[in-house]
Amino acid sequence: MTATSLLGEIADVGRDRKRGGYSRHAFDQAEGELRTWFVERAQRLSLDVETDRNGNIWAWWGTPGPDAVVTGSHLDSVPGGGAFDGPLGVVSALDAVEILQAKGFRPGKPFAVVVFAEEEGGRFGVPCLGSRLLTGTIDADKARALKDPDGITFAEASAKAGHDPERFGADPEALGRIGRFLELHVEQGRGLIDLGSPVAVGDTVIAHGRWRFSFSGQGNHAGATLIGDRHDPMLPAAAVVGAARRVAKATGDGRATVGRLVPTPGGTNVIASTVDLWLDARVPGGDRTRALVAELSALAKEAAAEEGCLVEIAEESYSDTVTFDAKLRDDLGKWLGGAPELPTGAGHDAGILAGFVPAGMLYVRNPTGVSHAPEEFAEAEDVDHGARALATVLEHMST
Ligand code: GLV
Ligand code: MN
Ligand code: MN
Ligand code: MN
């Protein structure tokens, strides 16, 4: 099986007929189907599969143990996401194992393929939940209480999927086994198109986080309420949407996005009583990210007061700048014959793990430069090139 043919096997799972692309969310039916598929695929390669206390799946080639070489990614997606973000790293890992087995290679160290749970935060709002729980980066009580848009908690959804939410939390045993972690991922911007290379080595991840702005005002009638009598929370929310662009642009290299905004009750002829919006902010440098959020928070409070509304602002997740392990980066570049290095504006489980163990990433060219959307793409030739590159470096890492 090649990485391309493995992607073909799951091409119909979790298609989103309404939004286009794929919606595969933590512990939903589609993601469950992909998990079952992964286990079956891993077992066909004679890997021993176990699920850790946080719902991450580990497929061991040989005996589990310390100083393990670990590779993998995630199978969940954003709402209406592409086919590659997540699954590419998983299928490439399976393909790499098969390539190495076919040439008779046996790892000299413990070796595992891992699938992390809820990487996108597409359902419960906090990205990289599986790796944050594993590393103790998020409090287990906080994680258990996270709610999806239907009000189902992470604890309830995971219990329904057969996990024990009481066991969620820092897992020093699983973490302690990881010697080095390497994640292969589709490139999410134009980096590799511009470099004319099929594969790059990750160097940094930009500081990033998510903040929830909850505006409340007075729900009312759209026809009977004079403009001067309104306390419409949509007004300060709209001000934040516009300001996010303006403030991010002023930083020169920062990004700020409002991709989700929920008015309640959400009727055309109803002045909303509340509006929740989520700000995704990313600026090189943690201090600059926080400064951008502080500026937008002050502006939100001012705009809310002006409309006679209230606003509450809560940080839902934050990750500081990550620089991947220098030695691993150098080695990856060398083993791949001088692959270029690339920074990323996207967060990854490798970024969370990098705070605890030497971690690195490989990116595979995306000719559309689009990601988190159905147009995300990688040519079959590049996908298989990526899997072979992964096999090459894993062989070096695990010899
Ligand atoms: C992950 O894809 C992110 O949004 O950073
Ligand atoms: Mn193969
Ligand atoms: Mn993503
Ligand atoms: Mn991803």
Quaternary = single chain
Ligands: glyoxylic acid, manganese (II) ion
The CATH top-level class label of the largest domain: Alpha Beta
Instruction: Show unreliable segments.
Output: none
> What is the distance, rounded to the nearest whole angstrom, between the alpha carbons of the first and last residues?
23 Å
Reported CATH architecture of the largest domain? 3-Layer(aba) Sandwich
Biggest β-sheet description: 9 strands, mixed
* Corresponding CATH superfamily of the largest domain: Zn peptidases
Question: Number of folding domains?
Answer: 2
* Class by SSE composition: alpha/beta
Features:
binds manganese (II) ion; 399 residues; binds glyoxylic acid; 2 domains; Alpha-Beta Plaits; 13 helices; nine-stranded mixed beta sheet; Aminopeptidase; alpha/beta
Question: What report would you give on this structure?
Answer:
- By secondary structure, the protein is an alpha/beta fold.
- Helices cover 36% and strands 23% of the residues.
- The protein contains 13 helices and 15 strands.
- α1 packs across α3, α3 packs across α13 and α9 packs antiparallel against α10.
- The longest helix is centred in the last third of the chain and has 21 residues.
- The model has no long low-confidence stretch (mean pLDDT 98).
- One manganese (II) ion binds next to α3.
- This is N-carbamoyl-L-amino-acid hydrolase.
- Belongs to the peptidase M20 family.
- One of its GO terms (molecular function) is metal ion binding.
- Its cofactor is Zn(2+).
